[in-house]
């Protein structure tokens, strides 16, 4: 279970740092209100999609991990060309490092084991539900 917590923590860090870096570099010439709203709603949208994909992975639908991987890649590819604006070195390095750590966590042996265990649990749950439906004792409420 520490893999789930680490993945969510790194995702929040990655999305947040990418939003800050975007606001300070790409949107630096825009009005402050526009830059703030754009980065806030972009980060909120990415966070919501990441949470939905993580929920589906934990429910046993392991192909949703590709959406998590895509969000990490989006954060990496948005942060990478920001070097042209000469951002703060610490902010830039952390904005590049956090999606890479997230991709490393998703590719770890422990995370793969977790996804396959969740798939086994989903298959067992579906088998139990099918048995209960045949017996007429399944109630969904």
Automatic annotation (TrEMBL):
Instruction: Say if the entry is tagged with keyword Transmembrane helix.
Output: yes
The record lists the membrane-crossing segments as: 7-28, 34-53, 65-84, 90-108
Highest taxon listed in the record's lineage: Bacteria
Could you tell me the keywords of this UniProt record?
A: Membrane, Transmembrane, Transmembrane helix
Q: What is this protein called?
A: Uncharacterized protein
Source species of the chain: Pseudomonas veronii
User: Taxonomic lineage per UniProt?
Assistant: Bacteria, Pseudomonadati, Pseudomonadota, Gammaproteobacteria, Pseudomonadales
């Amino acid at each position: 279970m520490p893999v789930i917590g680490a993945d969510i923590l790194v995702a929040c860090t990655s999305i947040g740092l990418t939003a800050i870096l975007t606001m300070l570099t790409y949107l630096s010439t825009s009005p402050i209100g526009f830059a703030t709203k754009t980065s806030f709603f972009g980060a909120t949208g990415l966070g919501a999609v990441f949470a939905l994909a993580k929920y589906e992975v934990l429910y046993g639908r392991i192909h949703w991990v590709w959406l998590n991987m895509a969000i990490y890649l989006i954060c990496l590819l948005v942060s990478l060309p920001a070097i042209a604006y000469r951002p703060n070195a610490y902010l830039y390095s952390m904005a590049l490092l956090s999606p890479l750590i997230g991709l490393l966590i998703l590719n770890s042996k422990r995370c793969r084991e977790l996804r396959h265990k969740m798939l086994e649990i989903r298959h067992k749950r579906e088998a139990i539900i099918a048995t209960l439906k045949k017996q007429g004792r399944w109630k969904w409420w």
